[in-house]
Structures are given as C-alpha cells and as structure tokens.
C-alpha cells in the first residue's frame, strides 16, 4: 500500500512539473510579433484627365471624388497620403480661341476649385506640339503668375534633339516668374522638361497626351532607402537590401492601386519609383549612408548609380522618371551641403548622368540673365539627348537677391538656403 501511494505521489509530482510551464505560459504575455516594415508615405495620388471647358467643374468634382476614394483605400492599409493631384492634357489644346485675359480668368477659376478641393493641378506642357510655341510659353507664364495651386512645364527636346527656341522660351518664363511673383516662388511651379515621359505623378514635370481616366502613384520613400542601406558592409549588400525593400513596397502599392482600378474603373498606370525626399526623410542621407562620405565627395556618383541600378530591378508596373531626385531646396541635407559649397550645378549634372532628374530647385541670384538661364537649361537638355534619359530643370532665380544672401521662400515645401554665384561670375583668384 505504501509502495502504491509513493508511486502515485511520484506521478502527481511529475505531472505538476510537466504541466506548470504550460500553465505559466498561458498566464504570460504573448510573445512580441516581429515589427512590420514602416510604410513610406504616399507623396501623391495623381489623376490624369482630358479637360472639357464646357463641364470642367463637374469633371474636377468627379475626379476629386475618385482621388478621395483612392486615398481612403491607401489610408485603410496604414499609408499616409500627403497630396492629391490632377493633370490635364496640354493646356494649349483647350485654350484655343481664347484671348490671354479669357484664359487667365478661366485658370483663376480652376485655381479656386483646386484650392477648394485641396488638390494640386498641372496643366501640362507648352511647346509639346503646335507651331505657336512662344505664344504657349507666354500664356503659361501668365497662368502661373496669377494662380497658386497650378503647375506647368515646357518641353525643350523634340525627336531626340534639342529644341533651341523652346530652351530660350523656358528661360524667359523663368525670368518672368522670378520678377512677377512673391518671393519669386512662381518658378517652384515650373520646369523645363527634356525627354521626360508622360504620366509621372510628380510635379511640375507631369503631363499626359492620352485618353484620361488614369492614375499613378508617387512615394516619399527616401527614408525607406536610408533604412534599407543602413549598416550595409559593402555596395553589393546595400544594393540587394534596397531591391528587397522597394520590391515589397512597390508590390504592396500595386495591389492597392489595382483594387482601386477594379472598383472605380480608373486605369492604374504604375508607380514612379523615384525616392522623393521630405523635410524629415532625406535622399541626401540615403546617399551618404551608402557612400559613407559627405554628399559631393568622391563616391557620391557611385552611390547614386548603385541606387539607380537597384530601382531598375523592381519588376512592378512603373511610370515617370523612376530615378533619383536631388531637389536641393526640398531636402534638408541637400540644402546643407549646398550651403557648404559641396554641391554645384556641375556636380549635380554629373550625378544626373547616372539617372538623377536634372537640376531641381536650385537657388540663383536675381540678376541671372535670360541668356545664362538658357545656357543652364541647354546643359540639362544636352545631357538628356546624349544619354536618352529624362531630365528637367527647375531653376529659382530670386529677384533682388545677390550671391551670398539667403532666400526668403514661404512655401512650406521649400527650405531657405544661401544663393551662390554662377561659376561664370565667380572671381578668379
């Protein structure tokens, strides 16, 4: 009897010893889940429409409704959507027969609707077609002078060649906007395009020449790029990590965009993979993470090329530039390196040779002449034609400001920085 009791006691003690860890586990907190990757912001959902002057109010209302629907879909999956944008066919197509005054009044009305609906509007490109390019350029300058939410561009290449009259026209538009808009900020809304493809979601170079009822997506993904490349021991590893990060992000975006496509009947054209900067996520920081040197040092070109080649490996549906953007006054580290003298027009152009987007938000002295602006634009166009690549120039000459002084922009997307002299005007020591 005693042996049976002892045997039973042993079994009970064993059972308690075995079961107690499970009892403890049931009362303990569940193990932490692996953290999900931080989603990049959606910089823009951009819709492309064919504007009809006779019913533009209704069209804009319907397009805004679509954009808000798309915004809701993305936000339901944890994305932050920064801006909603609309691109029309090139404005010369729907301003035919209008005087300049009539056209300006029409675009003021459009501008008011854009303000009311909290969207940004791009009216496409001048000099894209037709024989009245200079008149188109003059009208575009008048439109941008008199509106706040409208953007536009001018195409300076044609049939794989530089269109020299267009280069000069773009320089005149820049000079006019510099002299006639508050703080010369009108030039922030204008770009000279060279071989830029249609359907980019990013402004001001966006345009289209198709049927409308289409949309594309742009991400503010510079932070994703920095995180992916952090602590990579070498360039091949950094490149592999960038491909993995952008592959996951691109296909997640594509899945949501295709859902919107199916449910709303708007055609999804693709994602512009260009890793856009924001004031808290710098493309400059991403480049320095890879090069391990200050931007502008040896190795910068290699880092830009590494990022570009990685982005080309992403097999998702793409549109627009899908290259590196280096907007000097929209990126805190780029602005800092510009102030330090580490970046120049020529160095930025050299990075463009391995797929940047040209010269973007470059502060220039107010006395920069039309001829000097044309020479800078022609350098961008020459590089674009040579390598058959999309580039643009968004130059910001600031009226009344000289080299050494700081800009005084008020646009929240612009960072104020030091204006530097053009190389042609620097004193030779």
Describe this structure in words.
This protein has 429 residues and is an alpha/beta fold. Helices cover 44% and strands 15% of the residues. The chain has twelve helices and eleven strands. It has helices at residues 2-27, 56-76, 100-117, 133-145, 164-180, 222-229, 235-264, 283-291, 300-311, 332-339, 345-352, 370-387, and strands at 41-48, 81-87, 120-126, 150-155, 157-158, 161-162, 190-194, 214-220, 267-272, 358-365, 391-398. It has a nine-stranded mixed beta sheet with strand order 9-8-1-2-3-4-7-11-10. It has a two-stranded antiparallel sheet with strand order 5-6.
Determine the oligomeric state from the structure.
single chain
Q: What is the helical fraction, as a range of percent?
A: 40-55%
Strand content: 15-25%
Radius of gyration: 27 Å
What structural class do helix, strand and pairing data support? alpha/beta
pLDDT < 50 stretches: 1-35
The gross shape turns out to be globular
Number of helical elements: 12
Number of DSSP strand runs: 11
Spatially, the strands of the biggest sheet line up as 9-8-1-2-3-4-7-11-10
**N-end to C-end Cα span:** 110 Å
Mean pLDDT score, rounded? 90
What pattern of helices and strands is seen along the backbone?
HEHEHEHEEEHEEHHEHHHHEHE
Mind describing the biggest β-sheet?
9 strands, mixed
Quick recap of the structure?
This protein has 429 residues and is of the alpha/beta class. It contains 12 helices and 11 strands. It is globular, with a radius of gyration of 27 Å.
